[in-house]
Amino acid sequence: MRQNVAAPLSGSELPSSPSSLGSQTSWSKDIDGLLDVVGGAAGPVVLTTSGLMGLDPNDGSVRWSYHRDGAIYDELGRNSVVDTTLDRHLITSPDRRHVALRVLGPGTAINGEQSSYSDRDRNRSQPYISLVVDAVTGKVTNEHLSAGGALQLTDSALLDDTTAYSLANDAKLWDFQQLGFPTPSLGSEAHIGTAGHSSFLIDTDGQGNLSLAPQAHPSKTRPVPNLLCDQFGRVEVADGWVAYFDDNTWPKATTKTEAGQAHAVNLDGLAGVPGSETQSYDLGTTLGVNAIASRASGTLAMLPSSAPTDEGNRFPEFDSRWDGIPSVGQVFDPRSKTVAPAQEATGIAGIAVGITSPAMEENPGGQITARTPDGRTASLPIAPGTTFYSPGISEYSNAQLNDLAVAHSKDTALSAVNAPGATLIILNTAPPRDGRAKYYRILGITGGH
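Above: the chain's sequence. Below: its structure in token form.
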């Protein structure tokens, strides 16, 4: 293992996420073997097949790095915002100060017998190594063998399967199996992702039905409302906030194209954490949460109130019938606690990114255009000879500038992530649909207000 750490930063030294799209590229960085990109508290955090690194959002230079020889990083969820061909590998704490990931581990049974990675019995094997890294310094704060299952971060604790650990010293805080709860699932029902600032989403009945547990008092669980999830059933959390359908509209909103009345609420408030926000915010009528737009922008971006057709899918990233139709309606910003339509919202919810000028003799590189619903645009030239294909107008280029979720349904070669300090535009520089190639370019746009 090789590690280069960065100096810590105080809260006042940490950058804020751009509230609007800047006008031009400040830096670019080519990445070989890209697996995932998230916004850390000090800037972008990038995972590749070679390891993890934190970038300076001002110039794209490497602030810190972590390399583990021979490591294979586990997939934590489907449908990465970075690319339709990638899965999610990183999760962040609500305050973005920590990132968690899993490495495929030794696969050795606890009782000394050999066990394969497919063995899902936590009493016999622990086929993973769970890691938590300080997103500001790159220092590893937690590392231990894991059976899999839930993987969640609050601002100060890690939940790995059934056990909570302190992020300050990796000390064990509690194990909810010892609190008398049924043994939870190790399968896809386990919640993997951001939790509340001081509360976890846990399986208390052994059937994958989630409840909320305050980090400090895990036995005082509370039921959760009808939380909105992505296509794969994962609850979407932004800075400790979630969206839910009210009970009156939940039954009909479980179909593919029926809408419901939604609200935004703080997980800690639902869990009864003292001093936490308890007010809910009306999100209007919506088909659900737009997971791609939410993850890209760091907000709760909601789908519109209706789908293009009654036979379609509520999730635009899986239905080409959304072509040409905006897929972001209301947007809840958890930092300002405001709700606004995409055209008036801060940040990049609803952003569209496409190659709008193909490579031609008079412009041999081509040009990328990024546009947010408020009309702001950025033009990003592609230097000639820096991609493994000639950028052109194709289904992968998103020349018509569909927003991210709609463009994902056509395997777009471009995406975006709003990170503290910079808006990132991500270009797949390898031939589209080549599953073996993971060559990408990250372009940093600074200067957004």
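The longest helix spans residues 291-297.
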